[in-house]
Amino acid sequence: MSSSRVFSPLYLLLSISLLLQLAVALDPIFHECNTTSFTPNSTYNENLNTLLSQLNSTTPLTGSGNGSLGQSPDQVYGLASCRGDINSTVCQACITSAAIEIQQYCQYKEEAIIWYEYCQLKYSNLDFFGQIDYREAFYDALFSNVSDPASFNTSVINLLKVVEGQAIVSPKLFAMGSLGVGNSTTLYGLVQCTPDLSSANCETCLDWIIGFVPRYLYGKSGGIIMTGTCEFQYHTYPFEAT
Ligand SMILES: *[C@@H]1O[C@H](CO)[C@@H](O)[C@H](O)[C@H]1NC(C)=O
Ligand SMILES: *[C@@H]1O[C@H](CO)[C@@H](O)[C@H](O)[C@H]1NC(C)=O
Ligand SMILES: *[C@@H]1O[C@H](CO)[C@@H](O)[C@H](O)[C@H]1NC(C)=O
Ligand SMILES: *[C@@H]1O[C@H](CO)[C@@H](O)[C@H](O)[C@H]1NC(C)=O
Ligand SMILES: *[C@@H]1O[C@H](CO)[C@@H](O)[C@H](O)[C@H]1NC(C)=O
Ligand SMILES: *[C@@H]1O[C@H](CO)[C@@H](O)[C@H](O)[C@H]1NC(C)=O
Ligand SMILES: *[C@@H]1O[C@H](CO)[C@@H](O)[C@H](O)[C@H]1NC(C)=O
Ligand SMILES: *[C@@H]1O[C@H](CO)[C@@H](O)[C@H](O)[C@H]1NC(C)=O
Fold first, then answer.
1. Is 227 close to ligand 7, i.e. is its CB under 6 Å away?
2. Which domains does the chain show, CATH number per domain?
3. 91 CB under 6 A from ligand 8?
4. Beta strands of the chain (E only): which ranges?
5. Is any atom of ligand 3 closer than 6 Å to the C-beta of 51?
6. Hey, whose CA ends up nearest to atom 2 of ligand 4?
7. Nearest residue by C-alpha to atom 14 in ligand 6
8. Which end of the chain has fewer CB atoms within 10 angstroms, the N or the C?
């Protein structure tokens, strides 16, 4: 992965496995670490450990968790959230991995985020709650192409907009839906925002990433775009949580 800092362009994920193989569903899709390190075994480190352990125990109960511990400059903020359609068992498995792996992938980094198919976890020394994360977006596409890209493009955007409309008024800021395309194909879509966003910010975040569909996912039979605060996925088979 590029180590350079990219503000608006999307990264192409090198892993295309997430949409293809459920067997790898518990592997992280992507992670991002701040370049600033904290001192090992410092107060910040202790606050982080405690917060990760708290998020690990509270998140599976409702599908999301947040918290803040300590006093500036050692204060840490954290947020974890599971995909809206999975149960607490799958959520716990995902968050348990995330709490360990975020520290392996971003060892001693002041700020980090890790995404999986079924959950995401992030922490920072800064209060990020409620703010749209515009710093970067990641996309990935299925390798297979559709035969009618122009109408498929329209169908994907139409479906994602409908599902977005449902998500922004739902308590979990999550929705999924489907749309028949052609004679025998059904398109399935899923959108979600992190639970700290307002409905209006969720809509702004989703509008932003859905706007990238023609540029990055044109003609692709499945795709995903994710940011620190919202994501969507679509493909022509149903979503399954395993
Ligand atoms: C690290 O965090 C600071 C403060 O939020 C931010 O300005 C900077 O862009 C971040 N760097 C990386 C690599 O994420
Ligand atoms: C941090 O503390 C642990 C447990 O006390 C110790 O094993 C480890 O060596 C310490 N690490 C550093 C870098 O001080
Ligand atoms: C997270 O919770 C699981 C299940 O209770 C537990 O096995 C694991 O040790 C916990 N991890 C952390 C970092 O607290
Ligand atoms: C889909 O299209 C891309 C770009 O035109 C091409 O590189 C890729 O090989 C195609 N995939 C398949 C499965 O044909
Ligand atoms: C894809 O569909 C959207 C919404 O209908 C439209 O605005 C956009 O121009 C289309 N892009 C292409 C490349 O066809
Ligand atoms: C859809 O079904 C109609 C009626 O069976 C048929 O005439 C048409 O060719 C089919 N279109 C596609 C794209 O398969
Ligand atoms: C943090 O979680 C609590 C309890 O679920 C909730 O009331 C609060 O709104 C959440 N805060 C953020 C910023 O998400
Ligand atoms: C949770 O979901 C998984 C995958 O769908 C399923 O295998 C498991 O039985 C479910 N567990 C509970 C307690 O519902």
1. no
2. 9-124 (3.30.430.20), 137-235 (3.30.430.20)
3. no
4. 10-12, 30-33, 64-69, 76-82, 112-115, 119-124, 137-141, 174-181, 185-193, 223-227, 230-235
5. no
6. 145
7. 183
8. C
Look at residues 148, 170, 164, 163 and name the one whose alpha carbon lies nearest to residue 219: 148
Task: Determine contact, residues 88/64, Cβ cutoff 8 Å.
Answer: no
Residue pair 78/129 in contact by the 8 Å Cβ criterion: no
Q: For residues 143 and 87, which has the higher predicted lDDT (pLDDT)?
A: 87
**Residue 217 pLDDT exceeds 80:** yes
Alpha helices, DSSP H, located in 106-148 = none
The torsion of the CA quartet 215, 216, 220, 224, rounded to 10 degrees, works out to -130
Indicate whether this model's pTM tops 0.85: yes
Would the pLDDT of 10 be above 90? no
In the chain, % of residues over pLDDT 70:
88
Give the residues across from 186 on adjacent strands.
Answer: 180
223 phi, psi to nearest 5 deg: -165, 165
CA of 11 from ligand 7 middle (Å) equals 30
* Atom 5, ligand 6: residue with shortest CA distance: 183
pLDDT tens digits, residue range 20-32? Answer: 433 344 577 888 9
Q: Which residue minimizes the CA distance to atom 14 of ligand 5?
A: 150
Tens-place pLDDT, residues 120-145: 999 999 999 999 999 878 888 888 89
Give yes or no for a contact between 174 and 86, defined as CB atoms under 8 angstroms apart: no
